[in-house]
């Protein structure tokens, strides 16, 4: 059978491949510590689950408007208005199955073939793959350790050409845990206004931040009409499997995106939308507790990593990832990823799973218990005594 050429341009997420291999090893009786997954290891708050159950029992089992039910869009608008300090109405909000579709739909709606889109590298791999899919040119902006993995605004300016139509930002950042400063946001906003660019701001980790408060570029002067603010429930409320996220954007784009929803997924599961109202309106203690626990684990993992031969790790400011420099091991990131999984029983990701600029780094997700983090650190430390720069031959 023949497949469409466009499938040649579609990337994927390595985390799912590593998970599959880890499961194979587990089926053979091996014990694996999972530090490859980008999802909180907490339960969805009980009040949120109950709201979905209640909605199902009340018969909320039918299609809803594609952009989401009005009470949820209004709840999200009120939340974003208050949390980010900007004016938002329900007409600005489109509810989607997870945050990811906002990336897909808005790039699809705003970017033409031949356009250039600037995106962070290392970064969430879906940016590059969707840019390629729509026939645009992905232009990576390197995030460097010496700049605490924040983009360099001068370098960004040099990458902007007459073909550039969009900049993608992600703060707090996957995979490095970096957070853009207010000054960074102001300078990026000035460039976006000057060159009349869209900004797609992936704020899925907005609540998982360890000092200060998350700010959005959308709230800066001249930015709201050109910014797509993406956020959602997956990380904040430990709801990855529920599939609930949203985009906040100017009303005309919201209409285009809603039309894409109609053409593709129709609407988000109706009962899940009611859970989304409860999550934002109900008690927030579970979020506070989860973030405090992540902060504790961050201390354990960063300290432990810095004791391993050949590893150096900066303190991340947000999300639940540590991104150590592993160059002194003499191994390539992918070799180390394979070796640590196959021989030491620790599943984590090579920095290159997030783009070429991730070479020389590994991503640890610390969304796992302190006990398991210590077990993983112990295993890696043991493995480190045998490291050579040879390519590791594994199955
Ligand atoms: N954006 C980033 C930076 C992420 O790390 C993730 C998930 O790992 C997503 C978006 C997707 O979020 P969701 O599960 O809500 O689609």
List keywords for this structure.
disordered C terminus; binds pyridoxal-5'-phosphate; alpha/beta; Aspartate Aminotransferase, domain 1
Structural class: alpha/beta
The number of helical segments is 12
Order of helices and strands: HEHHEHEHEHEHEEEHHHEHEEEH
Bound compounds, please?
pyridoxal-5'-phosphate
What is the total tally of β strands? Answer: 12
List the helices and strands and how they pair.
Elements: H1 14-27, E1 33-34, H2 46-57, H3 70-84, E2 93-96, H4 100-110, E3 116-121, H5 125-133, E4 137-142, H6 153-159, E5 164-170, H7 182-194, E6 198-202, E7 227-232, E8 245-248, H8 251-263, H9 270-281, H10 285-305, E9 321-322, H11 333-344, E10 346-347, E11 349-350, E12 362-365, H12 370-384
Parallel strand pairs: 1-10, 3-4, 3-5, 5-6, 6-7
Antiparallel strand pairs: 2-8, 7-8, 9-12, 11-12
Task: Describe the structure in your own words.
This protein has 395 residues and is α/β, with parallel strands linked by helices. It folds into two domains: 5-43 and 285-383, Aspartate Aminotransferase, domain 1 (Alpha-Beta Complex); 61-281, Type I PLP-dependent aspartate aminotransferase-like (Major domain) (Aspartate Aminotransferase, domain 2, 3-Layer(aba) Sandwich), CATH 3.40.640.10. Helices cover 39% and strands 13% of the residues. It contains twelve helices and twelve strands. It has a seven-stranded mixed β-sheet, sandwiched between helices. A three-stranded antiparallel β-sheet has the order 9-12-11. Strands 1-10 form a two-stranded parallel ribbon. Helix 2 (46-57) packs antiparallel against helix 9 (270-281) and helix 10 runs parallel beside helix 12 (370-384). It is globular and about 60 Å long. It binds pyridoxal-5'-phosphate (PLP). Pyridoxal-5'-phosphate is lined by residues 38, 98-100, 124, 170, 174, 202, 204, 232, 234, 240, 245.
């Amino acid at each position: 059978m023949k497949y469409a050429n466009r499938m040649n341009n579609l990337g994927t997420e390595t985390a799912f491949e590593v998970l599959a291999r880890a499961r194979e090893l587990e089926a053979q009786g091996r014990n694996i510590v999972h530090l490859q997954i980008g999802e909180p290891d907490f339960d969805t708050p009980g009040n949120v689950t109950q709201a979905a159950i209640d909605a199902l029992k009340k018969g909320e089992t039918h299609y809803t408007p594609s952009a989401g039910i009005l009470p949820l869009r209004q709840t999200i608008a009120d939340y974003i208005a208050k949390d980010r300090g900007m004016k938002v109405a329900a007409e600005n909000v489109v509810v989607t199955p997870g945050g990811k579709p906002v990336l897909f739909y808005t790039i699809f709606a705003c970017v033409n073939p031949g356009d250039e889109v600037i995106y962070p590298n290392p970064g969430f791999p879906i940016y590059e793959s969707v840019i390629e899919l729509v026939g645009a040119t992905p232009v990576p902006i390197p995030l460097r350790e010496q700049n605490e993995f924040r983009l360099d605004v001068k370098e960004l300016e040099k990458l902007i050409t007459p073909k550039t139509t969009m900049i993608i930002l992600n703060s707090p950042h996957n995979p490095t845990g970096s957070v853009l400063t207010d000054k960074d946001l102001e300078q990026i906003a000035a460039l976006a206004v000057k060159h009349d660019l869209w900004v797609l701001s992936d704020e899925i980790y907005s609540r998982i931040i360890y000092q200060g408060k998350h700010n959005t570029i959308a709230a800066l002067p001249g930015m709201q009409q050109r910014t797509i603010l993406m956020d959602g429930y997956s990380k904040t409320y430990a709801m990855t499997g529920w599939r609930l996220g949203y985009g906040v954007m100017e009303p005309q784009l919201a209409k285009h995106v809603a039309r894409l929803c109609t053409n593709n997924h129709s609407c988000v599961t109706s009962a899940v939308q009611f859970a989304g109202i409860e999550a934002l309106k109900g008690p927030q203690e579970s979020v506070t507790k989860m973030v405090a626990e992540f902060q504790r684990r961050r201390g354990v993992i960063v300290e432990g990593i810095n004791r391993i031969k050949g590893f150096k790790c900066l303190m991340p400011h947000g999300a639940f990832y540590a991104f150590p420099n592993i160059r002194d091991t003499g191994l390539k990131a992918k070799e180390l990823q394979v070796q640590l999984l196959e021989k030491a029983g620790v599943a984590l990701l090579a920095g290159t799973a997030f783009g070429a600029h991730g070479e020389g780094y590994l991503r640890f997700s610390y969304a796992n218990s302190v006990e398991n983090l210590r077990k993983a650190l112990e295993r890696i430390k043991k493995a480190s005594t045998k490291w050579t720069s040879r390519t590791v031959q594994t199955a």
